[in-house]
Amino acid sequence: MKVSLLVTCLGDALFPDVGVATVRLLRRLGVAVDFPEAQTCCGQPHFNSGYHDDARELARHTLRTFDNGQTVVVPSGSCAAMIKLEYPHLFHDDPVWRLRAEDMARRTHELSDFLVNVLGVEDVGARYEGKVTYHMACHLRGLGLLTEPERLLTRVKGLEYIKLERADECCGFGGSFSVRYPNISGAMVQDKAALIEKAGVSAVVATDAGCLMNIAGCLRRRGSSVRTLHLAQVLEKT
Amino acid sequence: MNTYARHEHHDFLNAAQQALADPPLQEALVRLTSTLMAGNRRGYAALADSDALRSHAKRIKEHTLAHLDRYLEQLEAAVQKNGGHVHWASNAEEARQIVLDIARKTNTRRIVKSKSMTSEEIHLNPALEAAGIEVTETDFGEFIIQLAGERPSHLVAPAVHHTRESIARILSKYSGETLPDEAPALAKAGRRLLREKFRQADMGISGVNFAVAETGTIVLISNEGNIRMTTTCPRIHVALMGIEKVLPRWIDLPVFLKLLARAATGQALSVYTTLLTGPRRPGETDGPEEFHLVLLDNGRSRVLATPFRESLQCIRCGACLNACPVYRRIGGHAYGGVYSGPIGSILTPLYDSVADHPHLPHASSLCGACQAACPVKINIPHMLIGLRELQTHEKSKGRWEKWAYHLSAAVLRRPWLYRLALRCARLVLRPLAHEGWLRRLPGPGAAWTTVRDFPAPASRAFREQWRQLR
User: Contact B116/B205 with Cβ under 8 angstroms?
Assistant: First the structure.
C-alpha cells in the first residue's frame, strides 16, 4: 500500500519529529510513503476565522497537491477534519471543485483512523516504557474517532496507560482563540495541565500539534517534568 | 431600538476577566455544569439509540421549520377551537403591549410568572411594573435573581452564580427574618413566600416548551411544580412562545419529552410535565377562566430565511452551556445577552446585530462539545464560523487582521514563498529561544506567551529532512 503524507504546517515548521515518526511507523507497517512537496497549509486558520475566500484558495492548492488519487494520511485530527468535513462544505456550490473536495475527503485519514480502520491494526508492535496518559483532541470528536488512539496506546508493550480526567475537554488552543482570549484559553490549559500532573505520568500523548504546543507550552511554564508526545512518536518506538 | 441585548455596549473582555477572577463563581460553575453534563451523558446512554432519536428530533424540527406558516395557523385554529385566544406579535414591543392590554382588560393587579426565557427576551417584567402591576417570578432561582435585581446566567439554572450564603442574605432581606444558609430552610421559606403570591395573583404568565399544532396543546416542563400553580391558580393564563416552538403532531411530542430533560439534567422526565389544552371548561373544578397564547416572531422569521435557520431548532435545554469549556469559566453574564453560552453567542449577534457583538462569535475554541451534547445536534461551531464570516465583510473589522489573513494566504499558496517565510521565522525566532522554547513572542503573538511558552521553529523543518528520509 502507498500513501501520501500531509504533514501539516505546524508539524512541518514546529514538530518535524512527528512527521519523521509517522513515516517510520508507516514504513514499519509495510506502507510506502511519499511526501508531495508543494503542500503548505490546509487553510483551516482562514476558514475558522471567517476568511472563506482565502480558505478556498488554500483548499484548491491542497486539492491540486494531493490530486494523485492516493490515500492521504494526516497526523492531525484538526487538519483531517478540515479536509474531510469542511472542504466539501466550502465548495458546496462549485460543481467542479466540490467533486474534487469530496474525492479527497474520502481518501483522507487521520493517523489513528488510518491505522485502526484502514490497516485494521491495533498492536503496531511498539514498545514504550513509562506511565502515559492521553488527551483527546476536539476534532477527533468531530471525526467520530472516540476510541482509536486509546486502543492503539493500550496495546503498546511496557506502556502503563493512565486515564486522564476530563480527557475529552478542550485544552483551550482553538487557533486564533488562544491569542484573542489568552485569559480564557489560559484558564482552560492551566486546568488541563493540572489534571495531567495529577495523573502522575511521565508523558501525555495527543494527536494534534495544536494541542501539543498549547499543553507543552503550559507545562513548561509551570516547570512540570511531564513530556508531551504525539501519538506517532509513541507508536514508532520499538 | 432593538432590545435583544442586555446592554448596548457590553464589555465582554472585562466581564469575562471579572468572572475568571471570582473563585466562588468558578466553583459554582464547575459544580453545576459537571453535574448537569454527567446527567446529559447518562441520560443519552440510558436510551436504546440516543443518536437515532436525536437525528429524528432534528428531522421533525427541520420539517416543522420548512412548513412553519402552515403549522402556526393550524395551532391557532386548534387553540381557538379549545376556547383560547391567540395573539401574533411581530416584535418585543408588540408582545409587551399584548400582555399589557390583556392585563388591563382583565383588571389584573398581580401577576405570577413561571420561568420563561422568551419573557426575558422581550423584557416583559419592567414593562408590567411600569404599568403598576406587581410581578413575581415563581421559579426559585428566578425569584432569587428578581429580588437581587439581576438576570438569569443560565438557561435552566438562572441563579447558578449565587451561593447558599448569598441566597440566604437575599431571602432574609426580603422576608424580614433571619434565615439560615441551609438549602431545606431556604426552600421552605421560598415556598411559603411564593404560596401567598399564587393565591393573590390575577394572572399567571408562562413560557411554552412545545405547542402541538394538531391539538392546540401547550406543553410545559418543570421540576418545582410552580408552573402548575402559575397556569392553574390565577383566573387568567397567558403563555408566551417563540414561533419556532410549534410541533406538528401529538405523536412528535414524546420524541422531545424523551430528550429535553435528559439533555438538560439527565432526568428521564422532569418532575412535572404539564399539558394544557384550553382554559377551564364547564364542569371542571380548576384551571384559568381565560387562556391567551402569544406567538412571538421578534426576528425569527428573518433568521428562518438565512443559513442560520438551524439555530431555530433549539429547545433551550442548556446542554451546550454545560458542555462548553468557555461558558464553564466565564459564566452567563459575561455574554451580555439574554441567552448565553454557545447558543447565546449565535442568537445575540444574529437577532441584535453582528457589529455590536464582535466578541461573541469568537468566544469559542470550536471544540464541538456543544454539538455533541445538543439534543437536536445543532452545528453550533459552523454557525459561529458563519457569523465570523459575516464579520469579515463588516467595515469595523480591524484592517490589519484582514491584511494578515490575506497576506498569509498569498504566501501559503506559493510553496517557494512558504519556504522563504519558514526560513525568516526561524531566523527571527530561534535566537530568542531557550531550549527550543520562547518565553515571549513579539507582536500579536505576545498574548500567547502571557500564559505559556511557544515552541521555536525547528532547526530543520520536516520538508528539509524528507530528502534523507527518502
Answer: yes
Please enumerate in sequence order all residues whose Cβ is within 8 A of that of B127, keeping only pairs 6 or more positions apart, or say none: B96, B99, B100
φ/ψ of A69, rounded to 5, equals 80, 0
Query: B388-439, pLDDT tens digit by residue?
Result: 999 998 876 678 889 999 999 999 999 999 999 999 999 999 999 999 999 9
Q: Which residue of A has its CA nearest to B330?
A: A184
A45 in contact with B, Cβ within 8 Å: yes
Interface with chain B: mutation pick from A135, A146, A183, highest number of B CBs within 10 Å: A183
Report how far residue A196's alpha carbon sits from residue A201's, in angstroms, rounded to the nearest whole number: 7
Q: What is the DSSP string of B34-50?
A: HHHHHHHHHHHHTSTTH
Angle of helix B462-469 relative to helix A16-28, nearest 10 degrees? 30
Nearest to B451 among A17, A141, A189 (CB): A189
SS3 (DSSP) at A98? helix
Q: What angle do CA B153, B155, B158 make, to 5 degrees?
A: 45
CA separation, residue B355 to residues A49, B298, B388, B390 (Å): 16, 19, 11, 9
Closest CA to B78 of B207, B217, B173: B217
Domains within chain B, CATH numbers bracketed? 12-301 (3.40.50.10420), 410-469 (no CATH)
- Residue A214 CA to residue A206 CA, distance in Å, equals 11
Distance to chain B for A122, nearest Cα, Å: 25
* Residue in chain B nearest A40 by alpha carbon: B412
Q: Touching check for B250 and chain A: CB below 8 Å?
A: no
Cβ within 8 Å, pair B451-A221: yes
Residues shown for chain B: 470
Class of the CATH domain delimited by A122-235? alpha beta
Count of alpha carbons within 13 angstroms of residue B141, beta-carbon side = 19
Q: In angstroms, what separates the C-alpha of A183 from chain B's closest C-alpha?
A: 7
The average pLDDT across A1-28 equals 97
- In A, minimum Cα distance to B470 occurs at A34
Q: Do B17 and A183 touch (CB under 8 A)?
A: yes
Instruction: Report d(CA B325, CA A192) in Å as an integer.
Output: 11
C-alpha cell at B21: 477572577
Contact B274, B221 (CB under 8 A): yes
Complete DSSP assignment for A163-226 = PPTTTTS--S-TTHHHHH-HHHHHHHHHHHHHHHHHTT-SEEEES-HHHHHHHHHHHHHTT---
User: pLDDT (tens digit, 9 = 90+) per residue, A81-130?
Assistant: 999 999 999 999 999 999 999 999 999 999 999 999 999 999 999 999 99
Residue B100, pLDDT above cutoff 90: yes
Q: Where are the domains of chain A?
A: 2-117, 122-235
Contacts with A, B 288-347, CB within 8 Å:
325-326, 329-330
Q: Which of residues 195-234 of A touch B (CB under 8 A)?
A: 213-214, 216-218, 220-221
Distances (CA, A) of B236 to B84, B110, B143, B373: 11, 11, 21, 37
CB within 8 Å: A12 and B447:
no
